[in-house]
């Protein structure tokens, strides 16, 4: 992934006055081997709160590598990644995990739900180790399911 294929969208008016949620500067990821594989070369990206972003490209263009780095599942070989004002380069694995758990959500192409648990219980499982009291987690899970139009399926089994 060397350059975006389209012009970046202008930030929303409110976001123009806020620091970016995601900022990548000269991000690079090289995988060792003979020859080494440059999956990402000099990627610059700024995402403000409220922006809509799509990562599109042919197979092998670095999409998955970029998403793994954005999700703090991998580290860049070079460059800077600032997530919600936090520089990620020097973070320990524990700090990366904490930041990932508090700031990043993953959407998978196929869902991985426990078939013997309700929709609500499956959502609550994602917050089990968050340190947040169960009642608060339940309130948040109910609100999240409402936001995505799933509140009518709270007790359904997948």
Automatic annotation (TrEMBL):
InterPro entries: ABC_transporter-like_ATP-bd, ABC_transpr_LolD-like, P-loop_NTPase. Keywords: ATP-binding, Nucleotide-binding. It holds the Pfam family ABC_tran. Residues 40-153 form the ABC transporter domain. The keyword ATP-binding applies. The keyword Nucleotide-binding applies. GO terms for molecular function: ATP binding; ATP hydrolysis activity; transmembrane transporter activity. GO terms for cellular component: plasma membrane. It comes from the Bacteria. This is Macrolide ABC transporter ATP-binding protein.
